[in-house]
Amino acid sequence: MYKKLLTPQQALQKLRHFCAYQERSHQDVREKLLQLNCAKKEHDAIIASLIEDDYLNEERFALAFAGGKWRVKRWGRNRIRYELKQRKISDYCVKKALQTIEEEEYLLILSGLTAKKYAEFAAFQYVIRIKKTTDYLIARGFESDLIRVALAECRTETK
Q1: What value does the mean pLDDT take over residues 71-94?
Q2: Mean pLDDT across the stretch 22-39?
Q3: Is the pTM for the entire model greater than 0.70?
Q4: Do 63 and 96 contact (CB within 8 A), yes or no?
Q5: Rg of the chain over CA atoms, in angstroms?
Q6: Is the separation of the CB atoms in 39 and 5 below 8 Å?
Q7: Quick check: 74 and 113 in contact, CB under 8 A?
Q8: Exposure of 102 by Cβ count < 10 A (0-12 exposed, 13-18 middle, 19+ buried)?
Q9: C-alpha span between 30 and 15 (Å, rounded)
Q10: To 10 degrees, what angle do helices 103-120 and 126-139 make?
Q11: Closest by alpha carbon to 74, among 131, 121, 122, 117?
Q12: Between 90 and 155, residue with greater pLDDT
């Protein structure tokens, strides 16, 4: 944490570097401003300047975040939506970000994760096996109705 009070120009320069490194949400920038110990009356002006210079874009952040969490961590739509809401992203941007996930690929990944987890829990009783697999997939953010369908397919394949 910075001990001295930064001028708005110094804070703006640091935040430009901060935002250029990777996409950031408005909340991330506000938290960084607090860490930089910048005067609170300057926060809105600095954020407005970052938006004008296209260093900060909420929609671009939402698209990058959703795409990354889907491709890398294989999170479901519910988890991505929740995480974006935690970062105070608008409903419009959340909806647009979730639309970038292709339905066919989504169902294919869900099916693969379901089969993998269901097989991992082979030592458990049938009901416990279903419950553990369902809990895992819900924690990953997949929708419960899609999980039921994927589990039904998985059970018919293993018989």
Answers
A1: 96
A2: 90
A3: yes
A4: yes
A5: 21
A6: yes
A7: yes
A8: exposed
A9: 10
A10: 140
A11: 117
A12: 90
Alpha-carbon span 110 to 108, nearest angstrom: 5
Class of domain 103-158: mainly alpha
Q: Is the CA virtual torsion 148, 149, 150, 155 positive or negative?
A: positive
Q: Are 105 and 114 contacting, i.e. CB atoms less than 8 angstroms apart? A: no
Residue spans of the domains in the chain: they are: 8-56, 59-99, 103-158
| Amino acid letter, residue 13 | Q
Q: What is the pLDDT of residues 91-143, one digit of tens each?
A: 999 999 999 999 999 999 999 999 999 999 999 999 999 999 999 999 999 99
- Please report, as a single letter, which amino acid is at residue 83: E
- 3 state SS for the chain: CCCCCECHHHHHHHHHHHHHHCCCCHHHHHHHHHHCCECHHHHHHHHHHHHHCCCCCHHHHHHHHHHHHHHHHCCCHHHHHHHHHHCCCCHHHHHHHHHCCCHHHHHHHHHHHHHHHHHHCCCCCHHHHHHHHHHHHHHCCCCHHHHHHHHHHHHHHHC
Q: Please, what's the b/e burial string for 11-42 (b: 16 or more CB within 10 A of its CB; e: otherwise)?
A: bbebbbebbeeebbbbebbbebbeebebeeeb
